[in-house]
Amino acid sequence: MEEKRVRYPIGEHDFGELRRGGFLYVDKTQYIYKLINDSKFLFLGRPRRFGKSLLLSTLDYFFRGEKDLFKDTWLGKHEKEWKKYPVLHFDMSRTSGTKAETMNKFLHGRVEAFEKKFGVDIRNDINDIGDRFSTMIENIYEKTNQQVVILIDEYDNGILETLDLPKQEKEDMNNVLRAFYKQPKAMTRFVKFCMVTGVARFGSYTLFSGPNNYKDISMTQEYAACCGVTQEELLTYFEDGIEKFCKENDWSRENTIKILKEKYDSYRFTRSNVLVYNPFSLLRAFDETDLGDYWIKSGTSKVFAKYMSVSDFDLLQLQDLWVTQRRMEGMYSKEDSIPLLFQTGYLTIKSFKKDEEGEVEYQLGLPNGEVRNALVEQLMPIYMGVDNTEFDDRYRSLKIMFRKGDVPGWINQIKSMIGDIPYHLFGKKGKKSKDTQDTSIAAFERTYHIIVHTIFEMLNLNSRSEISVSGGRIDMVACTNRFVYVMEFKLDGTTDEALKQIDEKDYMMPWCADHRKVYKIGIVFSSKTHNISAFDYEPK
Predict the structure, then answer these.
(1) Phi, psi at residue 324, to the nearest 5°?
(2) Cα(519)–Cα(522) distance, integer angstroms
(3) For a 10 Å CB count at each end of the chain, is N or C smaller?
(4) In the chain, what percentage of residues exceed pLDDT 70?
(5) 363 DSSP β-pair partners
């Protein structure tokens, strides 16, 4: 008898189709109850393909009173009324292009479709999209004697399409959207509930009349897991997929879960320590029983790649990055790419702290292996000034050298890669006084350290920097399944000094009983050439 195949909802974000089609569904309906009892006007920001559309679709079917679709869900067991409301659901991802006229035509078309659906006057005579939208809302209310529900998905699609266009073209797009988006709040007497989703943070744009009247729940702790898949949900809903991974790869269950977690987990959107998997990649991985970079290759990073190519982004910022919430939620700019990286899902919250005045700062970092691969494939070539093919060849050969234990090979490859990094990242040249000399040397040493650490991060190697041991602090350790590389860096010094320090301070002691081959490596950087000038290594 043929084994029944689990139907994973790849790209299916219509709640009705998902439920009627027998697809696997991770029950998020408890959040529907929270949302509708929270505030009349809500905004949620999450990266692309994180489940925002499915969440809005679920709200759509709930407000339409489709009780049967919620059978055996949390909401189906707890909701009693199931009252029906007229729903106006706008999916802004369905429009493309960068022209304000295209967006205006799309919005008029959607409004006309709803005018026909609810049997109200078709007002093609109203040219202003805002006036037409508000007129329709009031007409539907008067005809049905019910407040309307407004759902707007991917509200920022038109904005993101115009990021790299001249100022006037961006403003033309914003004017069309502003006229449309301000209507729900202005028509609040006729509105039962309104929710807006997008990637760009709501408060970053003046497209809404009185944006403070919308509650931004993007970083609210009780909604930390409203999109994405938690570890508990993974173990509850995906047991069949986990078992299939185990069989196909001859992995233990424990190892399979660990690998999936390292590849797709660790997105954190609030202060609560709730981590979620990227749902799109996780579903694709289970459907194909393969650990691909699905989210990155789905077109999710289109805006990222386009915008980063013209930004002043400094890759070294990713090391020990602490930012305020205002910066995380800010508008994208050529000078500051951190909001873009966070909001599009390339960075996530790692921890947070409060200063003496109670202001919160968040530490941001790369969430998982898939995103590290994305930075290798997309950002590093831009950053180093080489094309994708050339960088891909270097990246592949570098990873092979690490895993084979070819120390001279991977050091020389890193030397070549450092040589392509823009000169300005090493700091400004100039005469240094005696008072600033020590500070400058320390800054140079840290720059080289961060560059090498970043390259290891991009390779998704198990690497750690400045590890405290009884004798001092090891500059860096990188590990593979077969090798451990213990490294000491020197600026304008000698390899003998570096290797001697490793010996004298017993830096290799933590790996004395390790089954892997351990190398001690001394690497010397030159402040003149801004690259590796010498290296030496010895096995344990």
Answers:
(1) -85, 165
(2) 10
(3) N
(4) 84
(5) 322, 351
